[in-house]
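Here is the promised in-class demo. Please do not try to memorize the tokens; focus on the logic of going from shape to residues.
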């Protein structure tokens, strides 16, 4: 019991340290490289792990070999030569550790820290996940699943039938044959489907720093949405003057250049949705990241048409994040604000640098759609 209490206390300390440093982790992207299949390794240099420390009492003495009781132990080297130890320092040592935390728990901490509301899924439920449901009674099982009322009833029936029940002194003592335990069966519970379609401008004006911002923000968006949907898929589109679908590694590491035609990405996203993700069965989240440059006003007009006629009626919400670049004009954000003022079907976010990632995530996810 004491060990369990200590483990629980340690988990509380770890959780507190994560919340304290979460914004630093988000803006610097420290956690992405530490991601496993289901957990994240959190570096926590502030926690000093308990360990044995040996005192100075009875420090003298020898182990083996020649010598008398009480002779000091040499520190190595020639016993006739003075020691060559290092000069004593003034600062305490740093005791850095890593604590594994489940991705679902990390998402919960993210939601608490950024005050993100739970998402209300729309559409039909399609994905079936397995859950254990207690639905019956059996004669064997662990004590933790013992059914008190059924066990009491069996013991009472046995004592009445055997004539050992005393009405004036109703003491019921169950024996092994009286015990009943809850049993379960595995059932399939439908879960809501969701797909995220990431689109990123990879034209010449989007440098490595801008792509790193997209990578970090996409990781945290994924972490939160996966905690809300058990059937989540991610698709990736990159574009300059043309668009193509790629895998996650290519999306985050590509180094391309060229002009920019944003409508090419929107048309490809539309085709993917039409062919694979019916709106009555899927919750659809397109995220587009760009520095705001586009080839022409004619192409910008085509983008507005796709958004108005297809994306808004089909998707839960359309999210556009504009990453500030020294080479980008940022005009596309202005065009969206002019075309769709106060339209709740689109969420716009300006990301000036890595320190702006936290505010951008809250803008995108803070409405719970």
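The designed amino acids, position by position:
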């Amino acid at each position: 019991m004491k060990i369990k209490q200590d483990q629980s206390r340690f988990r509380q300390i770890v959780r507190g340290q994560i919340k304290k440093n979460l914004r630093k982790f988000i803006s610097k992207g420290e956690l992405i490289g530490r991601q496993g299949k289901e957990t994240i390794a959190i570096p926590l240099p502030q926690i000093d792990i308990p360990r044995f420390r040996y005192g100075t009492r009875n420090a003298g003495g020898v182990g083996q070999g020649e010598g008398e009781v009480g002779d000091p132990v040499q520190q190595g080297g020639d016993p006739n030569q003075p020691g060559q130890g290092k000069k004593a320092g003034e600062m305490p040592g740093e005791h850095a550790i890593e604590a594994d935390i489940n991705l679902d728990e990390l998402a919960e901490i993210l939601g608490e820290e950024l005050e993100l509301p739970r998402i209300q899924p729309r559409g039909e439920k399609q994905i079936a996940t397995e859950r254990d449901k207690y639905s019956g009674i059996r004669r064997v099982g662990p004590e933790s699943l013992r059914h008190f009322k059924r066990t009491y009833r069996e013991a009472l029936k046995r004592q009445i039938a055997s004539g050992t029940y005393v009405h004036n002194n109703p003491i019921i003592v169950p024996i092994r044959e009286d015990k009943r335990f809850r049993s379960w069966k595995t059932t399939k519970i439908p879960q809501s489907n969701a797909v995220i379609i990431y689109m990123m401008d990879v034209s010449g004006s989007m440098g490595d720093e801008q792509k790193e911002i997209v990578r970090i923000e996409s990781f945290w968006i994924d972490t939160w949405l996966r905690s809300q949907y058990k059937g989540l898929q991610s698709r990736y589109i990159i574009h300059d003057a043309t668009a193509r679908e790629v895998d996650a590694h290519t999306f985050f590491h590509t180094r391309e250049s060229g002009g920019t035609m944003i409508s090419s990405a929107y048309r490809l996203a539309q085709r993917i949705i039409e062919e694979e993700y019916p709106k009555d069965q899927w919750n659809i989240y397109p995220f587009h990241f760009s520095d705001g440059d586009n080839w022409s006003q004619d192409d910008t007009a085509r983008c507005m048409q796709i958004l108005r006629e297809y994306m808004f009626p089909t998707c839960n919400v359309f999210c556009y994040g504009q990453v500030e670049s020294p080479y980008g004009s940022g005009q596309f954000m202005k065009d969206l604000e002019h075309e769709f003022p106060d339209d709740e079907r689109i969420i716009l976010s300006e990301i000036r640098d890595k320190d702006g990632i936290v505010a951008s995530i809250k803008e995108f996810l803070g409405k719970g759609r």
